[in-house]
Design a protein that fits this description.
Helices cover 39% and strands 27% of the residues. By secondary structure, it is an alpha+beta fold.
């Protein structure tokens, strides 16, 4: 019986502490975890996937030159409606306006292929159409960020960043 009373006293103390701590103190540990993104491109793809899942109009992604190039490539391929850079200096972000075909998302699936722990490269001879020609690979080549079809035209291979269809 005494154990139950002790537990209730402890719970009352914890509840009091949680009610009186500022929000920053409560979520300091979570804030530190969110700040360290190990694979920023995979994070960008996940934000796009999640945006389509909740039928969002736009998605915000932390800015980097590589992510901006990927977003512009997605725009040129018709996978997203618009790409805008927002903010200044260290608080820059990319605003991606998602595209829909009637009410259905244009992007059915977007995945990260080459990861920091496992890089995947394709030469010109190894490139073949993805999903019977309906899908595309996003590739980092010596001539810039390109879709696999454009890389074949340019006759270059490179690292497979992701696949989209």
């Amino acid at each position: 019986m005494e154990e139950k009373e002790d537990i209730w006293e402890i719970l009352a103390c914890v509840e009091y502490a949680l009610e009186n701590l500022p929000m920053k103190e409560k979520f300091r540990e979570l804030k530190n975890q969110v700040g360290n993104i190990m694979d920023p491109i995979a994070d960008m793809f996940t934000r796009i996937r999640n945006g389509y899942a909740i039928r969002a109009v736009l998605v915000l992604v932390p800015y980097s030159k590589l992510k901006m190039e990927i977003a512009k490539l997605l725009q040129s391929g018709g996978y997203v409606s618009d790409v805008l850079r927002r903010g200044r200096k260290t608080k820059k972000s990319i605003e991606i306006v998602l595209a829909y075909d009637k009410e259905n998302p244009v992007i059915k699936k977007i995945i990260r292929v080459s990861k920091p722990s496992r890089r995947v490269y394709l030469s010109l001879r190894e490139m073949f159409p993805l999903s019977r020609g309906y899908g595309r690979r996003i590739m980092s080549t010596p001539k810039g960020i390109l879709f696999d079809k454009d890389a074949r035209k340019e006759k270059v291979g490179g690292e497979v960043i992701g696949e989209i269809w």
